[in-house]
From TrEMBL:
It is a multi-pass membrane protein. It comes from Erinaceus europaeus (Western European hedgehog). One of its GO terms (cellular component) is membrane. This is Transmembrane 4 L6 family member 18 isoform X1. The chain crosses the membrane at residues 7-28, 48-70, 90-116, 159-182. Belongs to the L6 tetraspanin family. Keywords: Membrane, Transmembrane, Transmembrane helix. Its main location: membrane. It comes from the Eukaryota. The keyword Membrane applies. It is found in: Membrane. Pfam families: L6_membrane.
Length: 201
């Protein structure tokens, strides 16, 4: 029962994770606080997938709010019995938790791809993806980060922010997976108790 009651706590946890995802994604558009690179489209292409703003952010906020509403004690109006209401809310909770897994998983994958690809920056050869051919090996070799001349410290900027997005979306995936497990446990355990005790109303 303690794990089941924790479902509401998990739904509430998704809200700060979603808000931070939005903030971190927005920061990716402004290396070192400068707006000129976004306006001239000189950013890595993966920031334009809006993974942290739309999917791990706004969509996750919607999921979190719905899950919190479902955890309330109010019965669903379309049901005439408390048992019907509980089953309906469990089903909706599983559906929206699955939606949360998909949206946060999308953010996780896109952020990982952006991290591995590296930043779009100005090198001695012009604007290019300076580390695209390294298959992510540049992440552990800071000596080659100097290839990016502009924006200043863009490599560190991208690594830190994409890593934070990966962590945030990863936590969202885990929270939603736990919620699915909790709701399925409610469903299965509830069905089992009815089967072994058919006379109990």
């Amino acid at each position: 029962m303690g794990a089941w009651k924790c479902g509401g706590c998990l739904g509430g946890l998704l809200i700060p994770l979603a808000l931070w995802s939005i903030i971190v994604n927005i920061l990716l558009y402004f290396p070192n606080g400068q707006t000129s690179y976004a306006s001239s489209n000189k950013l890595t292409n993966y920031v334009w997938y809006f993974e942290g703003i739309c999917f791990s952010g706004v969509l996750m906020l919607v999921v979190a709010v719905v899950l919190l509403i479902l955890e309330s004690d109010n019965n669903y109006k379309g049901c005439q019995s408390e048992n019907c209401s509980k089953r309906y809310k469990i089903l909706l909770s599983v559906i929206f938790s699955a939606l949360g897994i998909i949206s946060s998983g999308y953010c996780l994958v896109i952020s990982a791809l952006g991290l591995i690809q590296g930043p779009y920056c100005r090198t001695l050869h012009g604007w290019e993806y300076a580390f695209e051919s390294t298959a992510g090996r540049f992440l552990t070799d800071s000596s080659i980060w100097v290839r990016c001349l502009e924006p200043a410290h863009v490599v560190e900027w991208n690594i830190i922010l994409f890593s934070i997005l990966i962590a945030l979306s990863g936590l969202q995936v885990m929270v939603c997976l736990i919620r699915v497990a909790i709701q399925l446990s409610k469903m299965l355990c509830g069905t089992y108790s009815v089967i072994i005790q058919p006379g109990v109303i």
